[in-house]
Design goal:
The complex is a heterodimer of chains A (309) and B (253).
Chain A: E1 4-15, E2 18-24, E3 27-29, E4 33-37, H1 44-51, E5 59-64, E6 67-68, H2 69-77, E7 80-83, H3 95-106, H4 111-119, H5 135-147, E8 153-157, H6 165-182, E9 185-190, H7 193-197, E10 202-207, E11 210-215, H8 217-221, E12 226-232, H9 235-244, E13 249-251, E14 256-261, H10 264-276, E15 281-287, H11 291-308
Chain B: H1 2-14, H2 19-48, H3 53-87, H4 91-95, H5 101-137, H6 149-161, H7 164-176, H8 180-197, H9 210-216, H10 226-248
The chains are: A alpha/beta (309), B mainly alpha (253).
Chain lengths: 309, 253
């Protein structure tokens, strides 16, 4: 197993009465693209600020590469690049000058500016002032700033916020390339499921400061049962038959039946049973739940639990 | 220490094309320009009545600059320096970089001090230049006398040192609060207050009055206002350290 890039232990941060992050245990494997999901106000940005040492936790601990952030802030941050919310850019400076400001602070080499510009494909516009940049270009330059010190861990907060579809695709492609081509572990937050779905190898879901789920997308899928939708010529008979055979089946309001299953073999078995009983099956559709369903289910469950207290 | 040097080098690059940098030339140039026009308008008869025109000319320049321009200018420059970071959400970026947090504040403080130093140097340089222009335009009124460099330099340095305390105070205000308006409002209110307070016994301890008090003694052979200078320099260093400590330990939201 690879080294963990980020671990947190019961990380907690309160703002007055509000507990923004509660007992959070993050585990981000090295080399992964970790999608940190949650609705707006779930505590994503607070978590990221804690990971970067911008704010201090009330309780718990952040470890980067196995080392406590409290003890080794300077050495650890040297291995981290971050883009938190809107990129921090000086509009009166050119793209290259913006990178140069950070290069001087990092004491990085001059070539690293060219490298960062090449990764985000901004070489052509590096001489222009950032004031004249589009939001997509600003976001890419923000990413270049984060990549400048050749980090092992990249922390991105809502990297596609405010981008148009083309910009979102560009950003997504970049994020996908980074682990392979540059060996970077990526931790990115988002409130958009489909966005994370397309890039993440690991997913964490946070809601109201609490971790609801952490694991691979496959493990997340397994949280919800699959079901098959059937259309037959005698739905009432079929329903009785399947219930007797031990399936959890129900009418879906019209002439179709919905049966809970577990994998393709179940679907084949149901089909065989119905055909064997002399019924005509017109339609058979195995539906896998989308992450959207899972997300709504998980957050919905927690809301109900919270409400009943 | 190398971290501070790096922070200062970054800070210098940020100043490129900024209003803050241009103002260090514009403020003294505008000020001296107005004095020059004033002298020309009042004419030779007016100028001729003064015993030592160089001293008189320098007095007008320094007193006005010290009383009014320096306090406002310090507020404006530090507000611009702080605004540079506030406007583009730089704090989260700067503090997430592997550099000691205090260097960010220290670099700002030192840049503020450097900009005010530049404007004071500008005041000295432009004043002498204006005197030389008058030497040509009004021959025989007294500008032919040797340029009192020592006097101009001495008061340039002293008024500058007398502004250290307000530089520190305004650096803290400008970094601590996001709003440009807050930073400028504090500067304007305190400067206006200084005009009332300047004659009080305790004006020595009113930071915004110190540059004016020092400039007010502009003359040959005047004793140096040591107490005021010590209040400003020592106070400036103490406030800078406190401000740095206070800002550095705050959450970066």
């Amino acid at each position: 197993m690879t080294e963990l890039a980020i671990t947190t232990f019961r990380l907690t941060r309160r703002f007055g009465d509000l507990t923004a992050v509660a007992d959070l245990d993050l585990q981000v494997p090295g080399g992964s693209v970790y999608g940190f999901l949650g609705p707006n106000g779930a505590g994503k940005t607070t978590t990221i600020r804690l990971l970067l040492g911008l704010i201090r936790p009330n309780a718990g601990e952040v470890r980067l590469f196995g080392q406590s952030l409290r003890d080794g802030r300077m050495t650890l941050l040297r291995r981290v690049g971050a883009l938190v919310e809107t990129p921090s850019l000086y509009p009166h400076l050119t793209g290259r000058e913006n990178l140069e400001v950070t290069r001087r602070l990092l004491d990085a080499r001059q070539e690293q500016i060219n490298r960062a510009l090449a990764i985000v494909k901004l070489e052509q516009d590096a001489h222009r002032r950032v004031a004249h940049y589009s939001s997509g270009m600003r976001q890419r330059l923000g990413l270049a700033l984060a990549l400048l010190g050749e980090p092992e861990l990249l922390i991105l907060d809502e990297p596609t916020n405010g981008l148009d579809p083309a910009g979102i695709r560009e950003m997504r492609d970049l994020i996908c390339r980074l682990p392979e081509e540059h060996g970077v572990t990526v931790f990115l937050s988002s409130h958009l499921l489909n966005e994370v779905e397309q890039v993440a190898t690991h997913i964490g879901i946070i809601h109201r400061g609490k971790m609801l789920f952490q694991g691979t997308p496959d493990e997340l899928q397994a949280q919800l049962e699959e079901h098959v939708t059937l259309e037959v010529d005698q739905p009432d008979v079929a329903l009785r038959l399947l219930s007797q055979a031990g399936w959890t089946a129900q009418r879906n309001g019209n002439h179709r039946l919905v049966v809970q299953v577990n994998g393709h073999s179940d679907v084949a078995m149901i089909n065989a049973q119905l055909v064997h009983a002399g019924m005509n099956v017109f339609h058979l559709n195995l539906k896998q739940p989308s992450l959207e369903d899972i997300f709504l289910k998980l957050t919905g469950e927690q809301d109900r639990q919270g409400g009943s207290k | 220490m190398t971290a501070l040097v790096r922070a200062l080098r970054a800070e210098t690059l940020k100043m490129k094309r900024t209003l803050a940098l241009w103002l260090t030339i514009i403020a003294p140039l505008g000020m001296v320009g107005l004095q020059l026009i004033g002298a020309l308008q009042r004419g030779e008869q007016y100028v001729r009545q003064f015993e030592d025109v160089w001293v008189r000319f320098g007095q007008e320049m320094f007193v006005f600059f010290g009383f009014l321009i320096v306090p406002l200018f310090v507020a404006l420059e530090t507000a611009l320096l702080g605004g540079l970071e506030h406007r583009s959400n730089q704090w989260k970026h700067l503090y997430a970089l592997p550099q000691p947090r205090w260097t960010v504040y220290a670099a700002k403080q030192l840049m503020g001090m450097a900009l005010i130093a530049l404007s004071m140097a500008g005041l000295v340089g432009f004043s002498v230049l204006a005197g030389l222009v008058l030497r040509m335009l009004m021959p025989g009124v007294g500008f032919d006398a040797a340029i009192p460099w020592d006097l101009f330099l001495k008061y340039g340095v002293m008024v500058y040192l007398a502004s250290w305390l307000i530089i520190s105070l305004h650096t803290w205000v400008a970094i601590r609060w996001q709003s440009f308006v807050v930073a400028m409002a504090v500067g304007i209110l305190m400067t206006v207050g200084g005009m009332v307070i300047i004659n009080a016994d305790w004006a020595t301890f009113y930071p915004w009055a110190l540059p004016g008090l020092l400039a007010n003694t502009f003359n040959k052979g005047e004793p140096i206002l040591l107490k005021e200078l010590i209040v400003s320099v020592v106070g400036g260093i103490v406030v800078a350290l406190l401000g740095c400590w206070e800002v550095t330990r705050r959450d970066v939201l």
